[in-house]
Write a structure and sequence with these properties.
Shape: elongated
Order of helices and strands: HHHHHHHHH
Helix content: over 70%
Radius of gyration: 19 Å
Strand content: under 5%
Number of helices: 9
Number of strands: 0
Protein backbone atom coordinates (compact mmCIF):
# COMPACT_ATOMS: atom_id res chain seq x y z
CA UNK A 1 0.00 0.00 0.00
CA UNK A 2 2.84 2.40 0.91
CA UNK A 3 4.64 1.75 -2.40
CA UNK A 4 1.46 2.36 -4.39
CA UNK A 5 0.94 5.73 -2.63
CA UNK A 6 4.52 6.72 -3.37
CA UNK A 7 4.10 5.87 -7.04
CA UNK A 8 0.85 7.84 -7.20
CA UNK A 9 2.47 10.81 -5.47
CA UNK A 10 5.32 10.74 -8.00
CA UNK A 11 3.04 10.68 -11.04
CA UNK A 12 2.65 14.44 -11.53
CA UNK A 13 6.43 14.83 -11.73
CA UNK A 14 6.75 11.78 -14.00
CA UNK A 15 4.11 13.29 -16.27
CA UNK A 16 5.87 16.67 -16.33
CA UNK A 17 9.19 15.02 -17.18
CA UNK A 18 7.48 13.10 -19.98
CA UNK A 19 5.78 16.27 -21.24
CA UNK A 20 9.11 18.12 -21.27
CA UNK A 21 10.68 15.27 -23.24
CA UNK A 22 7.81 15.21 -25.75
CA UNK A 23 7.95 18.98 -26.12
CA UNK A 24 11.68 18.87 -26.75
CA UNK A 25 11.38 16.06 -29.31
CA UNK A 26 8.21 17.07 -31.12
CA UNK A 27 7.71 20.76 -30.40
CA UNK A 28 4.37 22.34 -29.62
CA UNK A 29 2.49 20.35 -32.24
CA UNK A 30 3.88 17.07 -30.93
CA UNK A 31 2.79 17.82 -27.37
CA UNK A 32 -0.42 15.85 -26.99
CA UNK A 33 -1.91 14.06 -24.02
CA UNK A 34 -1.54 10.78 -25.93
CA UNK A 35 2.17 11.43 -26.61
CA UNK A 36 2.79 12.37 -22.97
CA UNK A 37 0.95 9.27 -21.75
CA UNK A 38 3.04 7.06 -24.06
CA UNK A 39 6.29 8.74 -22.93
CA UNK A 40 5.33 8.39 -19.25
CA UNK A 41 4.13 4.80 -19.63
CA UNK A 42 0.68 5.75 -18.38
CA UNK A 43 -2.80 5.69 -19.79
CA UNK A 44 -4.31 8.84 -21.25
CA UNK A 45 -6.74 8.80 -18.32
CA UNK A 46 -3.80 8.66 -15.90
CA UNK A 47 -2.39 11.84 -17.39
CA UNK A 48 -5.79 13.54 -17.51
CA UNK A 49 -6.35 12.65 -13.86
CA UNK A 50 -3.49 15.00 -12.94
CA UNK A 51 -3.67 17.50 -15.82
CA UNK A 52 -7.12 18.05 -17.29
CA UNK A 53 -5.86 19.45 -20.60
CA UNK A 54 -2.81 20.25 -22.68
CA UNK A 55 -3.08 23.86 -21.42
CA UNK A 56 -2.99 22.66 -17.81
CA UNK A 57 0.07 20.55 -18.61
CA UNK A 58 1.88 23.46 -20.29
CA UNK A 59 0.93 25.74 -17.39
CA UNK A 60 2.38 23.22 -14.93
CA UNK A 61 5.61 23.04 -16.96
CA UNK A 62 5.83 26.83 -16.97
CA UNK A 63 5.12 27.04 -13.24
CA UNK A 64 7.87 24.49 -12.59
CA UNK A 65 10.36 26.37 -14.80
CA UNK A 66 9.54 29.72 -13.18
CA UNK A 67 9.93 28.20 -9.72
CA UNK A 68 13.37 26.95 -10.78
CA UNK A 69 14.32 30.41 -12.10
CA UNK A 70 13.14 32.07 -8.89
CA UNK A 71 15.17 29.60 -6.83
CA UNK A 72 18.25 30.19 -8.99
CA UNK A 73 17.90 33.98 -8.65
CA UNK A 74 17.43 33.59 -4.89
CA UNK A 75 20.60 31.49 -4.73
CA UNK A 76 22.49 34.22 -6.60
CA UNK A 77 21.03 36.84 -4.24
CA UNK A 78 22.46 35.01 -1.23
CA UNK A 79 25.93 35.60 -2.69
CA UNK A 80 25.37 39.38 -3.00
CA UNK A 81 25.42 41.82 -0.08
CA UNK A 82 21.95 42.92 1.05
CA UNK A 83 20.80 46.26 -0.24
CA UNK A 84 18.69 47.88 -2.92
CA UNK A 85 20.81 46.41 -5.72
CA UNK A 86 20.64 42.82 -4.47
CA UNK A 87 17.79 41.65 -6.71
CA UNK A 88 18.93 43.24 -9.98
CA UNK A 89 22.51 42.13 -9.38
CA UNK A 90 21.23 38.61 -8.63
CA UNK A 91 19.33 38.64 -11.91
CA UNK A 92 22.48 39.69 -13.76
CA UNK A 93 24.43 36.94 -11.97
CA UNK A 94 21.76 34.42 -12.97
CA UNK A 95 22.02 35.40 -16.64
CA UNK A 96 25.81 35.30 -16.37
CA UNK A 97 25.65 31.76 -15.02
CA UNK A 98 23.03 30.40 -17.38
CA UNK A 99 23.23 32.37 -20.63
CA UNK A 100 25.58 30.07 -22.48
CA UNK A 101 23.62 26.92 -21.68
CA UNK A 102 22.01 25.41 -24.74
CA UNK A 103 18.51 25.34 -23.38
CA UNK A 104 16.27 24.14 -26.18
CA UNK A 105 13.72 23.20 -23.54
CA UNK A 106 13.32 26.88 -22.53
CA UNK A 107 12.68 27.81 -26.16
CA UNK A 108 10.18 24.99 -26.62
CA UNK A 109 8.43 25.92 -23.39
CA UNK A 110 8.21 29.60 -24.31
CA UNK A 111 6.72 28.71 -27.68
CA UNK A 112 4.26 26.25 -26.15
CA UNK A 113 3.16 28.84 -23.60
CA UNK A 114 2.23 31.25 -26.38
CA UNK A 115 -0.58 28.85 -27.28
CA UNK A 116 -1.69 28.45 -23.67
CA UNK A 117 -3.54 31.36 -22.04
CA UNK A 118 -3.09 29.76 -18.62
CA UNK A 119 0.69 29.52 -19.07
CA UNK A 120 0.86 33.05 -20.44
CA UNK A 121 -0.71 34.27 -17.22
CA UNK A 122 2.09 32.63 -15.23
CA UNK A 123 4.76 34.32 -17.36
CA UNK A 124 2.92 37.65 -17.15
CA UNK A 125 2.66 37.37 -13.37
CA UNK A 126 6.38 36.55 -13.12
CA UNK A 127 7.35 39.56 -15.25
CA UNK A 128 4.95 41.84 -13.38
CA UNK A 129 6.35 40.71 -10.03
CA UNK A 130 9.95 41.27 -11.13
CA UNK A 131 9.08 44.68 -12.60
CA UNK A 132 7.29 45.65 -9.40
CA UNK A 133 10.26 44.66 -7.27
CA UNK A 134 12.77 46.45 -9.47
CA UNK A 135 10.50 49.48 -9.78
CA UNK A 136 10.73 49.94 -6.01
CA UNK A 137 14.52 49.95 -5.74
CA UNK A 138 15.45 52.54 -3.14
CA UNK A 139 17.70 55.23 -4.53
CA UNK A 140 16.87 54.53 -8.16
CA UNK A 141 15.28 57.19 -10.30
CA UNK A 142 11.81 56.37 -11.64
CA UNK A 143 12.05 53.95 -14.53
CA UNK A 144 15.66 52.85 -13.93
CA UNK A 145 14.71 49.53 -12.36
CA UNK A 146 12.29 48.78 -15.18
CA UNK A 147 14.85 49.62 -17.85
CA UNK A 148 17.37 47.39 -16.13
CA UNK A 149 14.86 44.54 -15.95
CA UNK A 150 13.93 44.82 -19.62
CA UNK A 151 17.61 44.81 -20.58
CA UNK A 152 18.10 41.60 -18.58
CA UNK A 153 14.89 40.10 -19.98
CA UNK A 154 15.94 41.09 -23.49
CA UNK A 155 19.21 39.20 -23.15
CA UNK A 156 17.38 36.13 -21.90
CA UNK A 157 14.64 36.22 -24.55
CA UNK A 158 17.06 36.90 -27.39
CA UNK A 159 19.00 33.81 -26.38
CA UNK A 160 16.04 31.61 -25.46
CA UNK A 161 14.22 32.29 -28.72
CA UNK A 162 17.37 31.73 -30.76
CA UNK A 163 17.55 35.25 -32.19
CA UNK A 164 21.15 35.80 -31.14
CA UNK A 165 23.77 33.74 -29.36
CA UNK A 166 26.38 36.04 -27.88
CA UNK A 167 29.73 34.51 -27.07
CA UNK A 168 31.41 35.15 -23.75
CA UNK A 169 33.57 37.96 -25.16
CA UNK A 170 30.51 39.90 -26.35
CA UNK A 171 28.34 39.05 -23.36
CA UNK A 172 30.74 39.81 -20.51
CA UNK A 173 30.99 43.60 -21.05
CA UNK A 174 27.20 43.87 -21.33
CA UNK A 175 26.67 41.96 -18.10
CA UNK A 176 29.40 44.01 -16.42
CA UNK A 177 27.60 47.19 -17.50
CA UNK A 178 24.26 45.89 -16.23
CA UNK A 179 25.87 44.92 -12.93
CA UNK A 180 27.36 48.43 -12.58
CA UNK A 181 23.98 49.99 -13.32
CA UNK A 182 22.31 47.72 -10.79
CA UNK A 183 24.97 48.57 -8.20
CA UNK A 184 24.26 52.29 -8.52
CA UNK A 185 21.12 51.78 -6.44
CA UNK A 186 23.40 51.22 -3.43
CA UNK A 187 25.16 54.58 -3.94
Amino acid sequence: MQVKRQRLAARPEIILEAAAAVLLKGGVRGLTIDAVAAEAGLSKGGVLHHYASKDALVAALVARKLADVRAEIDACAREIPAGPSQLPRAMVAHIRGHYCEDDESARALLLASMESPEAQKDFQAFVADQLDQLGRIDGARPGEGSVLYFAILGLFMTRALGFQQLDGDALAPMLDALDRLAGQADS
